[in-house]
Amino acid sequence: MSAKLSTSQVEHYRREGYLVRNQPVFPPGRFDALKSRFEVLLDQWTSQGISKSPEHMDVPHFWDPALFDWLLDDTVLDLVEPLIGPDIVLWASHFLCKPPAVGKRVPWHEDSAYWRGRLEPMEVVTIWLAIDPSTPANGCMQVIPRTHSNGYSDYEKVADPGRQVFDTEIKKGSFDEGNAVNCVLAPNECSFHNGRLIHGSAANTGAMRRCGYTMRYMPATVKHLGAPPFEIYLARGKDRAGNRYGEPGKLNKAWTDQHPNGQPAGH
Hints:
Mean pLDDT: 94
CATH topology: Jelly Rolls
Radius of gyration: 17 Å
CATH architecture: Sandwich
Order of helices and strands: HEHEHHEEHEEEEEEEEEEEH
Largest sheet: 7 strands, antiparallel
Shape: globular
């Protein structure tokens, strides 16, 4: 059977808004296959001359259906279920790859701010799976514990937007950056964070690449208010909100037709 979160881990997630789990997620062969799949996608991204840096490999499962093999794996869903219940929807995924020396900073933000008006209620858990080692030296994710009660802070424009993944961030002074916690992970380990939690990461100025795969899920009681070609997928259990679902394992052709020269910068 797949491993599940302990009661204390679930309580930590609910109280703090995040959880770092320094245990392997997938069996070694399964993880190696996912990393190999990412390397293929990264090579395609760079060889096609896509103008956006690899931090912007958003919703790759729309254009590479092979990723559903991991996104819908019982190993992952068994970790998610204690946090959001047995009826699970795949909301999105994202390879956030920071190349060595030039990897961009991710400004302080809440995921919910980018998804406002698309989900009701706003209830999403993200699994941040480390593809590479993730440490302070290469720009690991940082979280501000217990900031997940609202999810809609005030934002301002960032300085030097060319070096940032997003062009806005939460206004300085809105929270105490001194409370930041580094999510340090070895490959195949993961963290979890609530969609309303304040988080970000420094630029990668080190010599080692830092890539994570975010796998995002919501309970099937959440209503998706977005429109095609963005698709969501029923991962486990039953629909509880009257949503329309895509077919897992199939290319989202409407999406790829709309974005033929690379994926848009997203979250």
